[in-house]
Amino acid sequence: MFLVVLRRSGPQWDSSRPLEEQSDWPAHASFMDGLVDAGFIVLGGPLADEHRVAHVVEAESDDAVRATFARDPWSETHLRVDTIDPWTIRLDGRHA
């Protein structure tokens, strides 16, 4: 099942610094790269306001998503899960 996850900046997010200069960036980046390599994250990245991040994930449930993101070094400090919504993909032009 595909789910769309919106994560929002947490209390330790420093809006005066770019993403790559946030505290614990190397650990967070490594963790996220591992989720991509494992096939959990299909697409992801920050939205224009730079306080929200959207991820398309492949997971069995909301609980599985929350448990996975709870292992992120930025969990609840720099990023919090805001919403998780199931997504039915009816159109996919990536392979056209």
Tags for this model:
4-stranded antiparallel sheet, Alpha-Beta Plaits, 96 residues, 23% helix, 31% strand
**Structural class of the secondary elements?**
alpha+beta
The CATH superfamily is Dimeric alpha+beta barrel
Number of helices: 2
Cross-sheet strand order for the largest sheet: 2-3-1-4
How many domains is the backbone divided into?
A: 1
Briefly note the CATH topology name: Alpha-Beta Plaits
The percent range for strand residues is 25-35%
For the biggest sheet, the summary is: 4 strands, antiparallel
Tell me the helix content: 10-25%
How would you explain this protein's 3D organization?
The structure is a single chain. The chain is α+β, with helices and mostly antiparallel strands and 96 residues long. The protein has a single domain (2-87), classed as 2-Layer Sandwich (Alpha-Beta Plaits). 23% of the residues lie in helices and 31% in strands. It contains two helices and four strands. It has helices at residues 25-37, 62-70, and strands at residues 2-9, 41-46, 52-58, 79-87. A four-stranded antiparallel sheet has the order 2-3-1-4. The radius of gyration is 14 Å and the shape is globular. The two termini are 22 Å apart.
